[in-house]
């Protein structure tokens, strides 16, 4: 076979490349390049027309210069000229230049597309291929528009050369990826599928890639490919290694094609046709059998190619997850690889086994390899292999082996690479919680986590241990004892101080009987850590101290002394100072009873998906990221005042001005005449010194994007634009509420003349009484301002108040108005009742004024747990086993206002059978109340919005819901 | 460590700065690995399959679900073709004939997929092209 000599054909190019290589310095190289650029430019501009060869040579030099990392701003026209040459070598350089230096200069695109068009219709396979490769490499929308219609025709035409078909198939694939809307398959589908039968295996290889891509998007249309793919695969795996000649690679018949066919089959469930299904099973068995045969070559290429097919076959077996024998055989095969001397195979076996572990058929088989996997964790040199071992241990974990696996992970954590510590911490925390039989073990495990890798224990983890301890009274005493012991260590991690502070503050009394952990000892122990801690931890400890005052009156004096000291009362940090002042004052003036009420034990946390799990999913990257709508810091420590998390996903509006425009027709404005909204806008845009909107004065548009999210929850981000984020945290009790509003300045510039007010329109003024403490007039760049609202519900109400803020940013006055999520349901107190009571009362409330029923379409699927959480968040008690129909939800609660109390019953009847797409009715919600006037009017946001913001994947499940009155 | 990119081929749209950044990142994660390591590295939301031949690294960045060993042997198949085509290929061949290497790549990989795997067929095609003027 003749060798290609160095730079043959273009001597000038070879000389230039040599020159560049001989340059001793960067400067010399740049000098040489500039000289060459000047030379080429003069040649291109010269009077003498260049011949094709010279043009090719200079364009190629420009390309080389570009690839060295220098900008090229000329020569594109000459490159385009080369495209119309009749000589392959000139055309090739032209196309290469175009492909590498894509330039969406519209004039040139037209010329390029013309040249491509000519080549595509030239019937010269070499030129057609060059053109197709160019389209495939550039893949621009312009090219898709120009050629998407021609390429399928070339692909399926009877007289197209094989090599052109290969290029056409992949060219089409690229266009489908970049501009799917422009590549209609329709009429070509069946002929494309039949390329799987082509005699030329290269064509089949390219076509399989195309079909797989198309089938992923549109499985139904390409369903016929399954039987053809199985037939083709069967012929390959049963062929002798010499049958396929060119396509046999190190004694393995067509390994790449086999892999592609197996991947195509993973777009589909197991074939329904028994014959095809049987044939496929035979193929998979043959592949598994071959893995046990002695190798036909010692070369790694042979085993790699063979195992490439094997791993893909195992992926298909796992994908089908239907044949227990195949699954167990696959598991055994992977088990052998776990001990293979090749690192690649051990890695891939660990990875593949992870998916096997989740199949019910093979979970047990995977578990038998636990010792090998643990050993891998200890001995593998490549961190990515150890990472896979951690993943597999996590996947194979269940109640039977959790103690062993968690212990091994903790062991490994001591020496684990920094890059994966946080993930291991999360995994340990999840496993310990999920499979804990014994909560004392759980507490030990988390404290160990903090001891070993405290820096990597995120807030989610230590919040979670506290939630669990609070919710389980059987473990509280043990937890108190254990944290007390752990805190004895001379140097303990700050996270331990937080957990310890919180738990002792709640349950320190449970161990106070022992003189070794008497109240004073507990206090002194915590306080010895105080000065080493950061501000947030100190704030938490201050809350612990006030809790101690309630738990242990005997240490009141000691603690008051601490609170009274200058280092607390005059602390430079406002948060600490405020806590010290307030707690000290509280401890001095409040009676024992009041103290006991204010500082009573935290109520149990609502059960919900572990926030740690959510975090892990987030870490694991795309595809597995769940909705993270809930503000992650909802569970606040000791009712403290940490700012709202900014993680909460909110729709941020692009800019204040577009925000105003886009919300111009906000429903909240219904009470104001339409012109006032436009007027307000003009004022906002054109007036600098717009007086603060007084209550009752028509306002600009009111934002309510996030309003409905707060119907069932109290914390989160209410509003966000480029300048400001407004977060809320609120608590309600009977007819009273307190709302903390956090204004975050997202810019680096100070907001001046900041003012805020709450506006109650019309009758709301008498129904709701709201007091707002005035805020500072400036908010520093990046800083957060907190404001507190005290709310009293005087009588029932429908409308929501509006928060209006105003500030000057960079010389412009900004006005923002947002609907405040204070809704009547916030004043619900849940009420438990029996089934009998419920229905008796339900029947009594039969007059039309006592009942509201609403039928509406659920925006999302009605996941039971999510719906339950919504109903509880709504404020009523969720009554389990009250309704004879288990798919209905019922709830009961009492709305407290200053003037009256109104009992309400709620019944939600999801109707999953209702016709999809039926015009109006889907969910009916009815709410019934003792005093009919108190029934929230049906258009109030209460009931339907419960279900319209349920986050979920599917959209068209439907339901019914009814309510009646007490 | 000094390293130069001899050839880069992109199957997704990136601007020049992003390409440069990607190249540097790939260098950084691949060149620190030794023979005891696997031939696979996680990279952003993808993975890199690579193989070292003397001082040259051949790297392919693929989806995380792609078949590692198939691409690993895809690299070797490509290298064997280069070796045959340039008759005992060395780094200098790739430097001086960079424009031909692009042709070899396009024959074997197109649109980020494997186009042709038969060495005989690829070489036959390359020699045919070589004979054209």
UniProtKB/TrEMBL annotation, chain A:
GO cellular component, one term: AP-2 adaptor complex
Compartment list: Cell membrane; Membrane, Coated pit
Bilayer disposition of the protein: Peripheral membrane protein
Main location: membrane
Biased composition (Low complexity): 645-672
Region (Disordered), start-end ranges: 616-672
Residues reported in the UniProt entry to bind a 1,2-diacyl-sn-glycero-3-phospho-(1D-myo-inositol-3,4,5-trisphosphate): 11-12, 43, 53, 57-61
GO terms (BP aspect): clathrin-dependent endocytosis; intracellular protein transport
InterPro entries per the UniProt record, alphabetical: Adaptor_Complx_Large_Subunit, AP2_complex_asu, ARM-like, ARM-type_fold, Clathrin/coatomer_adapt-like_N, Clathrin_a-adaptin_app_sub_C, Clathrin_a/b/g-adaptin_app_Ig, Clathrin_app_Ig-like_sf
Sorted UniProt keywords: Cell membrane, Coated pit, Endocytosis, Membrane, Protein transport, Transport
SMART domains: Alpha_adaptinC2 (SM00809)
Source organism, top-level taxon: Eukaryota
PANTHER family on file: ADAPTIN, ALPHA/GAMMA/EPSILON
Subunit record text: Adaptor protein complex 2 (AP-2) is a heterotetramer composed of two large adaptins (alpha-type subunit AP2A1 or AP2A2 and beta-type subunit AP2B1), a medium adaptin (mu-type subunit AP2M1) and a small adaptin (sigma-type subunit AP2S1).
The family this protein is said to belong to: Belongs to the adaptor complexes large subunit family.
Name of the protein in its database record: AP-2 complex subunit alpha
Lineage of source species: Eukaryota, Metazoa, Chordata, Craniata, Vertebrata
UniProtKB/TrEMBL annotation, chain B:
Transmembrane region(s): none
Compartment(s): Cell membrane; Membrane, Coated pit
InterPro entries, per database record: AP_complex_ssu, AP_mu_sigma_su, APS2, Clathrin_sm-chain_CS, Longin-like_dom_sf
Key words, A-Z: Cell membrane, Coated pit, Endocytosis, Membrane, Protein transport, Transport
Membrane topology per record: Peripheral membrane protein
GO cellular component: AP-2 adaptor complex
Subunit structure: Adaptor protein complex 2 (AP-2) is a heterotetramer composed of two large adaptins (alpha-type subunit AP2A1 or AP2A2 and beta-type subunit AP2B1), a medium adaptin (mu-type subunit AP2M1) and a small adaptin (sigma-type subunit AP2S1). Interacts with CCDC32; the interaction is direct and mediates association of CCDC32 with adaptor protein complex 2 (AP-2).
Name of the protein: AP complex subunit sigma
The organism's taxonomic lineage, starting at the top: Eukaryota, Metazoa, Chordata, Craniata, Vertebrata
């Amino acid at each position: 076979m003749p060798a290609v000599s160095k730079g043959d054909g273009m001597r000038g190019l070879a000389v230039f490349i040599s020159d560049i290589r001989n340059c001793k310095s960067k400067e010399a190289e740049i000098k040489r390049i500039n000289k060459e650029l000047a030379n080429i430019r003069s040649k291109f501009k010269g009077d003498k027309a260049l011949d094709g060869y010279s043009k090719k040579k200079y364009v190629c030099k420009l390309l080389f210069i570009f690839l060295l990392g220098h900008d090229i701003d000329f020569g594109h026209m000459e490159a385009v000229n080369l495209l119309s040459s009749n000589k392959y070598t000139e055309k090739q350089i032209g196309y290469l230049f175009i492909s590498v230096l894509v330039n969406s200069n519209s004039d040139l695109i037209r010329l390029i597309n013309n040249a491509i068009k000519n080549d595509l219709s030239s019937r010269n396979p070499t030129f057609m291929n060059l053109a197709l490769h160019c389209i495939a490499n550039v893949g621009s929308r312009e090219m898709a528009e120009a050629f998407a219609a021609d390429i399928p025709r070339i692909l399926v035409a009877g007289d197209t050369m094989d090599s052109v078909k290969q290029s056409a198939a992949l060219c089409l694939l690229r266009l489908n990826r970049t501009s799917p809307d422009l590549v209609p398959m329709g009429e070509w589908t069946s002929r494309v599928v039949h390329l799987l039968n082509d005699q030329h295996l290269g064509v089949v290889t390219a076509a399989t890639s195309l079909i797989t891509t198309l089938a992923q998007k549109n499985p139904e249309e390409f369903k016929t490919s399954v039987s053809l793919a199985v037939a083709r695969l069967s012929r390959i795996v049963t062929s002798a290694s010499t049958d396929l000649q060119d396509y046999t690679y190190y004694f393995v018949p067509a390994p790449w094609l086999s892999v592609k066919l197996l991947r195509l089959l993973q777009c589909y469930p197991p074939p329904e046709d028994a014959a095809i299904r049987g044939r496929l099973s035979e193929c998979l068995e043959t592949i598994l059998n071959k893995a046990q045969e002695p190798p036909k070559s010692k070369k790694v290429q042979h085993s790699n190619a063979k195992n490439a097919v094997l791993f893909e076959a195992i992926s298909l077996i796992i994908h089908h997850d239907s044949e227990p024998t195949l699954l167990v055989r696959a598991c055994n095969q992977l088990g052998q690889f776990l001990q293979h001397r090749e690192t690649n195979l051990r890695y891939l076996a660990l990875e593949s086994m992870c998916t096997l572990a989740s199949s019910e058929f093979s979970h047990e088989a995977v578990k038998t390899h636990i010792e090998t996997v643990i050993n891998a964790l200890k001995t593998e040199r490549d961190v990515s292999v150890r990472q896979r071992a951690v993943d597999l241990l996590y996947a194979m974990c269940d109640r039977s082996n959790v103690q062993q696996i968690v212990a091994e992970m903790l062991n490994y954590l001591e020496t684990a690479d920094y890059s994966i510590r946080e993930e291991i911490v999360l995994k340990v925390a999840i496993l310990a919680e999920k499979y804990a039989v014994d909560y004392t073990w759980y507490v030990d495990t988390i404290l160990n986590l903090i001891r070993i890798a405290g820096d990597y224990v995120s807030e989610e983890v230590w919040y979670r241990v506290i939630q669990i301890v609070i919710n389980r009274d059987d473990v509280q005493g043990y937890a108190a004892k254990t944290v007390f012991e752990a805190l004895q260590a001379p140097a303990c991690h700050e996270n331990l101080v937080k957990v310890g502070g919180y738990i002792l503050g709640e349950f320190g009394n449970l161990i106070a009987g022992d003189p070794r952990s008497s109240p004073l000892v507990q206090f002194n122990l915590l306080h010895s850590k105080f000065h080493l801690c950061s501000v947030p931890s100190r704030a938490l400890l201050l809350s612990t101290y006030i809790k101690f005052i309630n738990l242990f009156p005997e240490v009141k004096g000691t603690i008051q002394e601490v609170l009274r000291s200058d280092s607390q009362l005059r602390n430079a940090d406002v948060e600490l100072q405020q806590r010290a002042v307030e707690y000290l004052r509280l401890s001095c003036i409040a009676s024992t009873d009041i103290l006991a009420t204010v500082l009573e034990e935290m109520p149990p946390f609502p059960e919900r998906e572990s926030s740690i799990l959510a975090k892990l999913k987030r870490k694991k990257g795309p595809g597995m990221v769940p909705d993270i709508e809930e503000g992650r810091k909802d569970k606040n420590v000791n009712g403290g005042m940490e700012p709202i998390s900014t993680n909460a996903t909110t729709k941020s509006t692009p800019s204040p001005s577009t925000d105003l425009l886009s919300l111009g027709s906000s429903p909240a404005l219904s009470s104001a005449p339409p012109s006032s909204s436009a007027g307000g806008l003009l004022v906002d845009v054109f007036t600098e010194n717009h007086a603060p909107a007084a209550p009752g004065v028509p306002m600009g548009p009111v934002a309510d994007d996030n309003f409905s999210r707060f119907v069932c929850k109290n914390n989160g981000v209410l509003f966000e634009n480029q300048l400001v984020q407004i977060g809320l945290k609120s608590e309600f009790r009977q007819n009273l509420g307190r709302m903390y509003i956090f204004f975050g300045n997202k810019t680096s510039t100070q907001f001046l003349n900041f003012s805020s007010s709450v506006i109650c329109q019309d009758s709301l003024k008498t129904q709701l009484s709201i007091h707002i403490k005035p805020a500072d007039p400036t908010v520093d760049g990046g800083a957060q301002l907190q404001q507190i609202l005290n709310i009293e519900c005087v009588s029932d109400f429908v409308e929501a108040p509006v928060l209006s803020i105003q500030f000057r940013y960079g010389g412009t006055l900004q006005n923002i108005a947002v609907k405040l999520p204070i809704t009547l349901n916030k004043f619900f107190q849940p009420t438990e009742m029996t089934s009998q009571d419920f229905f008796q009362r339900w029947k009594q409330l039969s007059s039309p004024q006592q009942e509201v029923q609403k039928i509406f379409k659920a925006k999302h699927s009605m996941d039971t747990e999510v719906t339950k959480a919504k109903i509880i968040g709504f404020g009523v008690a969720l009554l389990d086993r009250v309704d004879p129909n288990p798919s209905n939800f019922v709830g009961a609660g009492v709305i407290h206002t200053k003037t009256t109390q109104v009992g309400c019953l709620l019944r939600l009847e999801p109707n999953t059978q209702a016709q999809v797409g039926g015009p109006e009715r889907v969910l009916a919600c009815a709410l019934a109340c003792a005093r009919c006037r108190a029934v929230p009017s049906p258009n109030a946001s209460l009931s339907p919005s419960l279900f319209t913001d349920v986050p979920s994947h599917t959209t068209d499940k439907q339901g019914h819901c009814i309510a009646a009155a007490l | 460590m000094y390293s130069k990119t001899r050839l880069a081929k992109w199957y997704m749209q990136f601007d020049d700065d992003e390409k440069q950044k990607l190249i540097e990142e790939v260098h950084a994660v691949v060149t620190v690995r030794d023979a005891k390591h696997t031939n696979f590295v996680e990279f952003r939301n993808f993975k890199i399959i690579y193989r070292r031949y003397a001082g040259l690294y051949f790297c392919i960045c693929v989806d995380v679900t792609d078949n590692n060993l198939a691409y690993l042997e895809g690299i070797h198949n490509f290298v064997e073709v280069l070796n045959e085509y340039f008759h005992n290929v060395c780094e200098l061949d790739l430097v001086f004939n960079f424009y031909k290497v692009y042709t070899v790549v396009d024959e074997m990989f197109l649109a980020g997929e494997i186009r042709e795997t038969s060495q005989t067929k690829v070489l036959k095609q390359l020699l045919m092209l070589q004979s054209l003027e």
